[in-house]
What we know:
By secondary structure, the chain is mainly alpha-helical. The chain has 14 helices and no strands. It comes from Bacillus coahuilensis p1.1.43.
Amino acid sequence: MNSLSKAYQECEEIIKYHSxxxxxxxxxxxxxxxxxxxxVYAFCRIVDDIVDEHEDPVTDLYAFExxxxxxxxxxxxEDNSMWVALSDVFSRFNMDVQAFWDMIxxxxxxxxxxxxxxxxxxxxxxxHVASTVGLMLLPILAPGKEKTLREGxxxxxxxxxxxxxxxxxxxxxxxxxxxxxxDLFEKYHYTQAELESLIKNDAFVAIWEDLARKAEMYxxxxxxxxxxxxxxxxxxxxxxxxxxxxxxGQVRKNQYNVFTKRNYVxxxxxxxxxxxxx
Length: 278
């Protein structure tokens, strides 16, 4: 196995381990596009892990930014699988460099413990950490259609990140992060103290459903442009959207327990959703 094949394989292992939903959906792509998605995911995962797992995320994120600058100049560590694979991706596809920088900026928001006053603040965060992924992938999934599909990709990122937020309320609290916007606390008469006490009452459900409706609106908006994608990527993109959207249904099925239960779409449900699309 040559070094490039090995690099792509290691990137594949990263997404296979960390995101079974994305891995399942994008495994439907042709070989070259599939490998490119693995490399982009590895980049996003590494940045995310710096912020969530490292002891000194500020220093390490700046160091990663410098690595990315050097990468863009063609200088990178030949023994780093992610950079090796990503270099091949950048040589094959017309990648959106700004989307990568915006992703890094979004991760820095978590380091700085940003307070989210409004839903628009949540959307701004969602753009930086999730919509950017869609913009990174557009040149791979729909070359030449980047402008046409840009809004849909941004909206799908909004939808998926709001879904993440609604699924991970309890996990985020453990990291001292609250992404639910304060204006909804006021609107539905729920307090931060109640949230931190893991109180799931009607007010909490109202906040959750308010954001869930916005997520579902953005899923619908994103899917309006699905037919603009080439045939080879249409099913994977739609599949990813539907599989992720199904998480909202699982939370409802589990009586909105996002404090002590991990809500996920089972393999059986994934098979059912994907089979309905074929």
